[in-house]
Amino acid sequence: MNLVIVAPPSAPVVDLPRLKSHLRVSTGADDAQLAALEATAVAKLDGPGGILGRAILPQTWRQTFAGGPYILAMPDVTDVSVTADGEPVEAAIALDGRRTVVSLVGTAREVVVDFTCGLGAGDLEIAKVIICLYVEHLFDRSDLSPAYHDLVDKLCWARV
User: Fold this and answer.
1) What are the φ and ψ backbone dihedral angles of 28, each rounded to 5 degrees?
2) DSSP string over 93-119
3) How many Cβ atoms are within 10 Å of 119's Cβ, its own excluded?
4) Distance (Å, rounded) from C-alpha 11 to C-alpha 23?
5) What is d(CA 3, CA 14) in angstroms, rounded to the nearest whole number?
6) How many whole angstroms separate alpha carbon 105 and alpha carbon 91?
7) Alpha carbon distance 129, 75 (integer Å)
8) Rounded distance between C-alpha atoms, residue 5 and residue 57, angstroms
């Protein structure tokens, strides 16, 4: 299985005004640092290699399979496009427990699945709070809030 990002998110998860409000920062002197810290927090949490193991904002990934079963690497899938042996094919997606499974009719040597995934509105709000708490920790050099770990545990997706 090979997994690569095709279309990353086009905007930060938490915009600068919200970060500044959370941190009670009123000037623009720290804007570049805050943007960099937000990107650091997102990199720590986002995607299949992040702590959450899932996409925060909508993004498109390509996963290549040499054979079935075709289990996608991340949850929260909203769109799927499948090619089998280089030809577009119809496919169905289904949830099997906590896994997203792509089903094909017939067999193929190579299956390529492009899928878009990202958190729903409620979970996205939780992710924004997590990012604000982590940026606060980095910016103020303060202890990490216990709420951070509780919220991360709530959103963390374990591969099954």
Assistant:
1) -95, 5
2) EEEETTEEEEEESS--S-EEEEEEE--
3) 22
4) 20
5) 26
6) 7
7) 20
8) 13
Res 41: pLDDT: 98
Between the CA atoms of 46, 157, 146 and 30, what dihedral angle is there, to the nearest 10 degrees? Answer: 10
Q: Containing H/E element for 124? A: helix 121-140
Does a cis peptide bond (omega within 30 degrees of 0) precede residue 69? yes
What pLDDT is stored for residue 160 in this prediction?
40
Token couple for 117 = 């995934």
Angle between helix axes 16-23 and 121-140 (nearest 10 degrees) is: 60
- Give the pTM: 0.89
**Residue-level pLDDT at 109:** 87
Tell me which amino acid residue 31 is. Answer: D
Task: Give me the amino acid identity at 22.
Answer: H
Pairwise CA distance, residues 123 & 55, whole Å? 11
Per residue in 113-160, pLDDT (tens digit) is: 999 999 999 999 999 999 999 999 999 998 999 999 999 999 998 654
